[in-house]
Amino acid sequence: MKEEIMTSKERLLIALDGGCPDRLPATTHHIMKYFRDTYMGGCNDREFFREMGLDPIHWVNHSFYTREQEENWRIEEEPVNTTGYRTVRYKIHTPKKTFTMVVQYNQYTSWVTEHLLKEKGDIEILARYLPSPRADVGKINEEAKEHQDCLIRGFIPCFDISGQPGCWQDLACIFGIQDLIMETYDDPQWVKEVLGILQRRKLDYVDTLDGCKYDILEMGGGDASTTVISPGIFQEFVAPFDTPIIHGIQQKNIRVVYHTCGGMMPILEDIAAMGPNAMETFTPVDMGGDADLKEAKRRVGKKVCMIGGFDQFHFFNGCSREATRSRVRECFEAAGENGGFILAPSDHFFDADPELIRAFAQEAACCIYE
Length: 370
Prior knowledge:
Blueprint: H1 8-16, H2 33-39, H3 45-52, E1 57-59, E2 63-64, H4 67-71, E3 74-80, E4 86-93, E5 98-105, E6 110-114, H5 123-129, E7 134-135, H6 137-146, E8 151-155, H7 167-175, H8 177-186, H9 188-206, E9 216-220, H10 231-251, E10 255-259, H11 268-273, E11 278-280, H12 293-300, E12 305-310, H13 312-315, H14 321-335, E13 341-345, H15 354-366
Parallel strand pairs: 1-8, 8-9, 9-10, 10-11, 11-12, 12-13
Antiparallel strand pairs: 2-7, 3-4, 4-5, 5-6
Helix pairs in contact: 7-8, 7-9, 8-9, 9-10, 12-14, 14-15
């Protein structure tokens, strides 16, 4: 057993770098407001981590457009009167055209009901007026200083209103995933042209990251999982556009985690070959994914840190503390060997029993590296 007890941040960073910390790091992805309000009296993220006994993460994302960019890319919100869900029509005014997108919201999440990109020829307007945000280094570093006990995490900017960090995933949000998949067969050159426009915007942002105190930034997103697309589409339309962004971030001395919520097993090596420092979420079969932690560890565990793997749907609700602790131990035995593993729920959770989350954290603290 290691004699020295590490801080949470040291523990997480050592695991992210493929090393072996004092014990199994345990944390979570975003803490959803619905969960905090419903089950924890509206506590903030820092209070959640302290009360649950988990290794804390602090999310920070500050970026801005210049005044000239805002003049050519003006976003307007228009509430839509509907029954049921809160609905908002967004209008993006450019000198050439006004784009519209409709998003609906409930207490858990949001979803797009009208995609922004309706005519393929509009990519010329996007190419001309879509602004590239700049990192607000001062604000980012100020928050990092205030949360020195936490892993400082952010993500590559998504498309305004609704998007994801990866290029393919961003395009799926503004064009629609079904139509996008069809276009990879009908007009693959158009798809690559739009992906290049979105990639340029993200690379421009990366160029402004000098001096940022991020520990890790997120790339990827669920629309590139093999639950949604084939390995062939991933290899042709995802990896070539996200890989340069990953390398660009790392050149700023910031780690990268590639997020894949859904199927991963057929593309494990493809994701690892892009060069991220870590991969997530390793969603179990019983939650709709396909992750086999032991097999994933065998195939890519020496190349990247693995984050996630825990079934929060069945073991944060409706079971005993002993069952939760047993599942933690199973994850550790499957993927914890020689470090490079951070135990976490496989993405978000909304309804959960705080006592089971405590059991999750307590058992992880008992998973000691000899």
